[in-house]
Write a structure and sequence with these properties.
This protein is mainly α and about 350 residues long. The chain folds into 2 domains: about 140 residues; about 200 residues, Four Helix Bundle (Hemerythrin (Met), subunit A), CATH 1.20.120. The chain contains 14 helices and no strands. The longest helix is centred in the last third of the chain and has 37 residues. The chain is globular and about 65 Å long.
């Protein structure tokens, strides 16, 4: 049993193990429930899976099932990002252990409470476990805010290579803090309409009503919650990549205020969408543009660094275009995340133009 204890200690007691466990759960859930998709249904695979696992899939409850599935995967992604943040940023070991432990129990409760409730009949104790898991994840976010508090003396930064205020407050840490604050508030923005389920508010998928000319306040709140949470998850990912790549220099000093200001403006625009829908969208576009410029500066810094390091590894002092390109992709682990940031943004814009 010693080997099992050792494995469990790695999986739930180390940052790499926690991330690996989260990725494994996300992969298994995606693989299993991906078998219920439209193409799988056409090939007859969906029927086999439903019969084999004795699932209860009423057509009228499809939207509710998908909402729980979406939130389950999202909570795993949020947990993985939290593990990375607590590992990359300075904080007390006790805070790190408490935050990681709480969010781990939280997302496991969401997985083992929400999915059985949604796909294997409606045993309400499982729904209670699901809600409890979401509450634990929110609570871990509150604890993360305390740990990230950037105005502590011990977290001051004076290194001129990194963005900081005249008093030494770390702008990168403030960016993480701003992202965490807006994420917690935005989760409440989605929880409010969720509290009306079963009280005259019908379940729906945002993609089905987003282009409807007339939407209720609760409809707008759900749509806004969906978009702002995805945006803030992406901003958190960009900040994590920047920390991992040791983002520094002039571009770092420009990008960090953009991440801070972009997160706040983008979130405020989303919160205003219920009462001031038309004006709010202009605020959202402005905030997202500012945040994306910060991400662009991160990509520029990262690619220059990868090219420089790649040429050094090959013993080339000054390479030509093709040598620089080869050096850029020579470390795919570091090139991949920044390439995704560029590819997904251009792909998303092209998709919007095509649908329009």
């Amino acid at each position: 049993m010693q080997w099992l204890s050792k494995r469990l200690k790695f999986l739930f007691g180390s940052t790499k193990g926690l991330i690996l466990t989260g990725i494994a759960f996300a992969a298994l859930i995606s693989a299993l429930f991906g078998m219920l998709s439209g193409p799988m249904s056409e090939w007859g695979i969906k029927d086999v899976i439903v019969r084999a696992l004795k699932m209860t899939l009423l057509p009228a409850e499809r939207e509710g099932r998908l909402i729980i599935l979406y939130h389950t995967l999202a909570m795993i992604v949020v947990a993985i990002e939290v593990y990375m943040i607590t590992d990359l940023l300075k904080m007390d070991d006790r805070q790190r252990l408490t935050i990681n432990g709480t969010i781990t129990v939280g997302y496991l409760a969401v997985v083992f409470g929400g999915l059985p409730f949604a796909y294997w009949g409606h045993a309400w104790p499982f729904h209670g476990i699901y809600i409890a898991g979401l509450s634990l994840i929110f609570f871990s976010g509150c604890m993360l805010l305390v740990a990230l508090w950037p105005w502590q003396e011990k977290y001051r930064r004076t290194d001129p290579r990194y963005a900081h205020t005249k008093k030494g407050y770390d702008l990168e840490r403030i960016a993480f803090f701003a992202m965490a604050v807006t994420t917690l508030i935005s989760s409440i923005f989605g929880a409010i309409p969720g509290s009306y389920f079963g009280n005259g508010f019908e379940t729906f998928l945002a993609e089905n009503v987003v282009r409807e000319p007339v939407k209720t306040a609760l409809d707008l709140s759900v749509i806004g919650h969906l978009h702002i949470m995805l945006a803030l998850i992406a901003i958190a990912c960009a900040l994590i990549i920047g920390r991992w790549m040791d983002f520094q220099g002039r571009l770092h000093k420009i990008a960090m205020p953009m991440f801070i200001f972009g997160s706040i403006v983008l979130s405020m625009g989303t919160w205003l969408v219920v009462s001031f829908e038309e004006i709010a969208h202009f605020i959202i576009y402005g905030g997202s543009t500012i945040a994306m410029l910060g991400a662009l500066f991160l990509v520029i810094f990262s690619w220059k660094k990868l090219i420089r390091e790649g040429l050094v590894r090959k013993g080339i002092k000054k390479g030509n275009f093709f040598q620089g390109l080869a050096a850029l992709v020579s470390d795919p682990v570091k090139f991949g995340p920044t390439w995704q940031m560029v590819f997904m943004n251009f792909g998303q814009r092209r998709g919007h133009l095509y649908r329009g």
